[in-house]
Amino acid sequence: MERVLSLKANYLCEKLGYDMYVITTAQAGHSNFFEFSDRARFIDLDVGYKELAGKPFVKKTYLD
Q: Minimal CB count within 10 Å: which of 13, 27, 53, 55?
């Protein structure tokens, strides 16, 4: 999935001149395996999936 995302984002940035924002949910500081354009920016929402595991649905949807 990351390979396809990098190809599409790089095309939109380099060929069509767009500035891209890639939003991730749990990047946790890991670097990308594939090369992305300098015009691609990354925003990590830092969702704590491990902390949410095993909690009731209500606790998962309404965080403290």
A: 53
- Count the domains in the chain: 1
**Cα–Cα distance for residue pair 60/49, rounded to 1 Å:** 9
Q: In whole angstroms, how far apart are CA 31 and each of 11, 36, 44? A: 20, 11, 12
Q: How many CA atoms lie within 13 A of 24 on its CB side?
A: 16
Its domain, for residue 37, covers: 2-61
Per-block mean pLDDT, blocks of 10 residues, the chain (64 long): 95 96 87 94 84 72 64
